[in-house]
Structure formats: structure tokens, C-alpha cells
């Protein structure tokens, strides 16, 4: 049911950049409060964000769907605990359609710049092809995992074969009978390696760092489970609450590596010991860093796949590519005809190279020269009426990002309502408030597993810039109520 609408809200115009889960969440939240004058600009030809791009074999979310879904759009017919990519994309499309988001989306529109004008108190958003939009508020929902990262390794052009990134899977390239190199061994590789291992002639997995694993079978639900979820009152809500608390426990293990973390590390080690029967593979695949420092992977099929006769796990660093394949620093040449980059994303780049200019023309990239930071991950001093979805320090190692996105959408909506209620033309976070909240947030990392190794959560200075240092429940408390005292209204 739509909640109360503030008078005048429908006149506020908002541009949302990005039509993944974040952009859809923001647009729905605004619409549910009467703010329907919204344009969503999306670079891709369709909505979906990460779930549109990541179509690699086995792509799924390892956060159970009961939690990895909007609280107000609960589905009772998920086919598995952790839904496959197509099911999640279908869900997002359905929710967007049901809430009238689709007609607000302008697809195939890559935004190149957003500039604030102090005189008119408007954002001008410009697409690469020169089209422009003007808005009173800007919501940047481009996420953290949107720019595939391909390391510069000498000689790639020399390889007499084909290469692509896991987030841009080339489905036209049949892997049957091929000699394939997978570079990287994170969450994406853990999902597609077991799938393609069955198909290729030979698979070489180049691993730089090993991972901690926990089990995930993810079999299709039997009919009786689906029937129970559908018909037993309260069961769906109970499962969502259970997954929520399980996820909070995972975060507790990262926050307290010497106590709760040890318990989960033992659980993981016992599971991995059972899975890794081959002593050589076990030695190579065993992590040498604190549990939870990098993302813990959920798979019951990846480690067995590494022990297949046609799969080799290589831990020697790559020296360069050569015409026949990949040469490692020990001088060995691994013959391959296909290279799949599973090397993740430029996570600390956020929305850049998009240019964002705030009050007085200041550039966000310069403001963030020493690392991205924002109040509650959403608002930045000097950038009036701008809200970030899944911005700095709002990634979660244990929880569901959808939970954070709902909080952020409601917070941005409240800020715009507060602006309207005051007859103001802009709302901007106070510099002292943002500086204090960032300092308090960073002060929570020492002693946690997040600082115990290098990871994509940290920028080149070592600062954790992607992750929230606490629990979902803490983020909820911090963002439930927009506090006008923390903001300036013009
Ligand atoms: P990732 O976790 O960042 O993994 C990248 C892999 O590439 C790592 O093994 C990394 O090694 C390696 N690598 C990076 N640069 C390298 C280089 N120059 N030379 C050799 N190896 C290199 O990327 P991802 O697997 O695509 O996953 C990214 C994130 O997406 C995940 O952490 C997760 O948040 C999300 N994701 C989620 C799901 C899900 O089910 N919810 C599934 C897939 C992805 P190092 O560890 O040594 O850096």
C-alpha cells in the first residue's frame, strides 16, 4: 500500500542513473510516495544491471532469495534457495513492471556527466550522445561491481585464441573440446568452473589467492517445500528472518575473527578437508589468511571440480602470454586456446569515468582523490541533492545488498521530502557531519578480518572503501530516519 504523500512531492523531478536493483529500488520508493516525475537512465539496452551482464554458466546469487529480494515484493515460488541469474533477472523485471518503473527507463543511454548549477539549483545530466536531462535531484545507482577488470599482462595480443571476461560471457564461443585458461578464482570462477569443467577438453585455473569455502548444494526445491512455502502462513517470513540472522552471524565472524571467526573457520576447514582429497590440490587451494578477510565462497562443487582429471590448478604467477598460451614464472607454458578473465571488477572506481561536478564545479573524482567516502554511503558534502545507491562502504560481506538498497532508497526519499517541506531547492550533507561519520566508520575496521589481508574492498592506500563495517541491523538503525540537522537546506 502506498504510504502518505507529502504535498508537492510529485513536482520534484529526479534523474536516476542506472536501472539495476539500486535504480529500481529508488524509483519504486519515490513512486510509492507520489514522486513519479523520474527518469531512469540506463547504459544497457535493458534493465537488470549486474544480473543482466553476468550470464556465465552457473551464475546465481549465493544469498538466499528470501533475503535477496525486496521486502515488499516477496516471491513464494523460488525454485531454489539461491536463485539462478535468469530467475533473479526475471524477478527484477517483474517487480519493475508491477511498480511502473519500466516506462520511466531510458535504455541504451550511457551518462557521461552530471553537473550541478548553483544558480538554478538543478542537475544537468548529459549522455554520451549529447542528450541532456535536468533534475532537482540526482540518484547515482551505478553500483560497485559494474566495470570488469582485466589486468595488464604482457602478450595477450599474441595468444592465438579467444578471450573474454566472465561478466561479458561470449555464449557464441563454444567451449566444447577446448583448452581453457581461467584467470582468477573468486566468487564468479567458483560458480562457472564446475560448469565448464564438464565441457572443455582441459581447464587450467590460475589462482593468485586461495579462498575459504562453505557448503552450498543449491538443489532444486522438491515440490513439497515449494508447496509449504506457498501455503503455510508465516513460513516465508520465518525463512527470511532466519537467513537475515544467519547473514548477521557471518558478519559477526568477520567483526570478531579471534572468536566467532575461529568457529566458522573451523567449520570451513572441516568442509574443505572433506572436499579436497587430492593432497597436492589441497595444499594449493588452502587459504593462508584470516577467515572472512576476502569474500567467503559458498560452493560444494568448485573444489571437487579442481580435482577432475582434465583440470589443473596453477598457483605459479603468470609471467606473460605467448602464442601457444600462458607462460608462468617457472618457465612452463600452459597451452590454451581460450582465456576467460574471472578477475572481478574495478570496485573502487564506483561511477567513474562518469564526470560528476557539484557546487562551484568541484569534481567528485578530485574530492575522492584519497579514497571514496560519503555519509552513510549516500551523501557527499558539496554535492547538493545527490544520493548514491550502493555507494562507498555499503557493500556487505555477510548480508543482502537489497536490504541496504531499500534503506538507501527510503533515506533519499525522506531527504527530498524534508527539502520540499522546507520549501528548499537543495539538500546537502554538512561537511563536519560527513567527516565525523566517515572517521567513526573507519575506526570500526581495526581488529576485524577486513584489514587482515588485501582485497577488492580496499583502495590502493589500504582503506576499506567498499564495505560497511557492521551489521545490516546497524545500517538500518543509522538510516531509518533522515536527520535534517545533519543537512543544510538552500
Ligand atoms: P573477485 O572476487 O574480485 O575475484 C577476482 C579473482 O581474480 C581473484 O581470485 C583475484 O585474486 C584474481 N585476480 C585479480 N587480478 C589478478 C591478477 N592481476 N592476476 C591474477 N589474478 C588476479 O571477482 P568475482 O569473482 O567476479 O566476484 C566479484 C564480486 O562479485 C564478489 O566478491 C561478490 O561480491 C560478487 N559476486 C557475487 C556472487 C553471488 O553469488 N552473490 C557471484 C559472483 C560474484 P586475488 O584474490 O589475489 O585478488
Describe this structure in words.
InterPro entries: FAD-bind_Monooxygenase_sf, FAD/NAD-bd_sf. It holds the Pfam family Pyr_redox_3. Strand 4 (111-117) and strand 5 (122-127) form a beta hairpin. Helices cover 29% and strands 17% of the residues. It folds into two domains: 9-147 and 346-489, 3-Layer(bba) Sandwich (FAD/NAD(P)-binding domain); 156-212 and 258-341, FAD/NAD(P)-binding domain, CATH 3.50.50.60. Strands 3-2-1-7-19 form a five-stranded parallel β-sheet, with helices on one face. Strands 8-17-9-10-13 form a five-stranded parallel β-sheet. The two termini are 32 Å apart. The model is unreliable at 1-11 (pLDDT under 50). The protein is of the alpha/beta class and 490 residues long. The chain is built from 13 helices and 21 strands. Residues 60-63, 145, 151, 166, 183-189, 191, 208-209, 294-295, 342-345, 456 line the site of NADP nicotinamide-adenine-dinucleotide phosphate. NADP nicotinamide-adenine-dinucleotide phosphate is lined by residues 60-63, 145, 151, 166, 183-189, 191, 208-209, 294-295, 342-345, 456.
Amino acid at each position: 500500500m502506498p504510504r502518505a504523500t507529502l504535498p508537492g512531492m510529485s513536482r520534484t523531478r529526479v534523474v536516476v542513473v542506472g536501472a539495476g536493483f539500486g535504480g529500481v529500488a529508488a524509483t519504486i520508493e519515490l513512486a510509492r510516495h507520489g514522486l513519479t516525475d523520474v527518469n531512469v537512465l540506463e547504459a544497457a539496452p535493458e534493465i537488470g544491471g549486474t544480473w543482466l551482464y553476468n550470464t556465465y554458466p552457473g551464475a546465481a546469487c549465493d544469498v538466499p532469495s528470501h533475503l535477496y529480494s525486496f521486502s515488499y515484493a516477496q516471491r513464494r515460488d523460488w525454485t531454489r534457495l539461491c536463485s539462478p541469474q535468469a530467475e533473479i533477472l526475471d524477478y527484477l523485471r517483474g517487480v519493475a513492471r508491477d511498480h511502473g518503473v519500466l516506462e520511466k527507463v531510458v535504455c541504451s543511454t550511457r551518462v557521461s556527466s552530471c553537473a550541478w548549477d548553483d544558480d538554478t539549483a538543478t542537475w544537468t545530466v548529459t549522455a554520451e550522445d549529447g542528450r541532456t536531462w535536468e533534475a532537482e535531484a540526482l540518484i547515482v545507482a551505478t553500483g560497485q561491481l559494474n566495470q570488469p577488470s582485466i589486468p595488464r599482462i604482457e602478450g595477450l595480443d599474441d595468444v592465438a585464441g579467444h578471450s573474454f571476461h566472465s561478466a561479458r560471457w561470449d555464449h557464441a564461443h563454444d567451449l566444447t573440446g577446448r583448452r581453457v585458461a581461467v584467470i582468477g578464482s573468486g566468487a564468479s570462477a567458483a560458480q562457472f568452473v564446475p560448469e565448464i569443467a564438464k565441457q572443455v577438453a582441459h581447464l587450467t585455473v590460475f589462482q593468485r589467492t586461495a579462498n575459504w569455502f562453505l557448503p552450498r548444494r543449491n538443489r532444486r526445491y522438491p515440490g513439497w517445500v515449494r508447496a509449504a512455502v506457498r501455503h503455510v502462513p508465516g513460513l516465508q517470513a520465518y525463512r527470511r528472518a532466519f537467513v537475515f540472522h544467519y547473514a548477521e552471524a557471518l558478519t559477526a565472524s568477520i567483526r570478531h575473527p579471534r572468536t566467532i571467526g575461529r568457529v566458522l573457520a573451523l567449520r570451513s576447514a572441516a568442509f574443505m578437508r572433506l572436499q579436497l582429497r587430492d593432497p597436492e590440490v589441497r595444499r594449493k587451494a588452502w587459504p593462508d589468511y584470516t577467515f572472512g578477510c576476502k569474500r567467503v565462497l559458498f560452493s560444494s562443487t568448485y573444489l571437487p571440480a579442481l580435482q577432475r582429471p582434465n583440470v589443473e590448478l596453477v598457483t605459479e604467477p603468470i609471467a606473460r602470454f605467448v602464442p601457444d598460451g600462458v607462460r608462468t614464472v617457472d618457465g612452463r607454458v600452459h597451452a590454451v586456446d581460450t582465456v576467460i578473465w574471472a578477475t572481478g571488477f574495478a570496485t573502487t572506481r564506483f561511477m567513474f569515468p562518469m564526470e560528476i561536478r557539484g557546487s562551484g564545479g568541484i569534481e567528485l573524482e578530485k574530492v575522492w582523490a584519497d579514497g571514496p567516502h560519503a555519509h552513510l554511503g549516500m551523501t557527499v558534502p558539496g554535492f547538493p541533492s545527490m544520493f548514491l545507491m550502493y555507494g562507498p562502504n555499503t557493500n556487505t560481506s555477510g548480508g543482502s545488498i537489497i536490504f541496504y538498497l531499500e534503506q538507501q532508497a527510503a533515506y533519499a526519499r525522506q531527504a527530498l521530502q524534508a527539502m520540499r517541506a522546507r520549501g528548499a531547492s537543495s539538500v546537502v550533507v554538512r561537511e563536519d557531519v560527513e567527516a565525523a561519520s566517515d572517521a567513526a566508520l573507519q575506526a570500526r575496521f581495526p581488529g576485524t578480518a577486513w584489514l587482515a589481508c588485501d582485497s577488492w574492498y580496499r583502495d590502493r592506500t589500504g582503506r576499506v572503501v567498499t564495505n560497511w563495517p557492521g551489521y545490516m541491523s546497524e545500517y538500518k538503525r543509522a538510516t531509518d530516519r533522515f536527520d535534517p540537522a545533519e543537512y543544510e537546506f538552500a
